[in-house]
């Protein structure tokens, strides 16, 4: 009898751990790298509050809020310190949210500002979309970026989905196509990405993108990993590399790493 009670208790505990719903997420990151020959270090914090409990039983934990069609508000703050004398920190603040209605309509909005110490750059983004099915959505977004030197407008379409595979594995994917309009030129940006989830706790992803606007073109690639040692704790890391070519002005290369952790309540 005691063995039966103990086995039942262990099974219930395991079930509760596997599907630990949450409503608030808080995390922090550290980043280090090089931009144009200048080293940098930085740190960031962020949080996400969901209007209702997020059901985590529908697939990979990293995709829980997407699969549960959750509505939320979030914020992030990132501070980058270039490694040379007298350099100002570059601080980025972002506040936004995503709202999903009962009819699967998606409304998104974000505001961000970048303070370089010498100038401020403000960006406002609004997006409207829908869930095509329970595991795929499409969002059309418009963004406008304003600084002291130029204005830049973006119009893009993003598709995101998660498909279940055999033996508990799944794959997530993103495709984005955008139009870019500046004061002097116009161009495009394209990005694609995929994440293979070995199970609901661990995933490896690869993403790449290109941008071409007037005399400036760039390409970027990143390798990402996400691991949940427990349903309430996420560890993640990213290695990234980007190259920007300016016709008549040379190339600017950048690379770096980012590591972070988040806790869910």
Along the chain, the helix and strand elements come as: HEEHEEEEEEEEEEEE
What name does the CATH topology carry?
Answer: Porin
Shape, principal axes of CA atoms: globular
> What is the CATH C-level name?
Mainly Beta
Please state the structural category: mainly beta
Strand order in the largest sheet: 1-2-3-4-5-6-7-8-9-10-11-12-13-14
Number of separate helices: 2
The assigned CATH architecture is Beta Barrel
CATH superfamily: monomeric porin ompg
Description of the molecule:
This protein has 265 residues and is mainly beta. A 14-stranded antiparallel beta barrel has the order 1-2-3-4-5-6-7-8-9-10-11-12-13-14. A hairpin with a 5-residue loop joins strand 8 and strand 9. It contains two helices and 14 strands. The chain has a single domain, classed as Beta Barrel (Porin). The longest helix is centred in the first third of the chain and has 17 residues.
Write the layout of secondary structure elements.
Elements: H1 2-18, E1 22-35, E2 38-54, H2 64-67, E3 72-82, E4 90-100, E5 105-115, E6 120-133, E7 136-146, E8 151-164, E9 170-182, E10 186-197, E11 202-213, E12 216-230, E13 233-246, E14 250-264
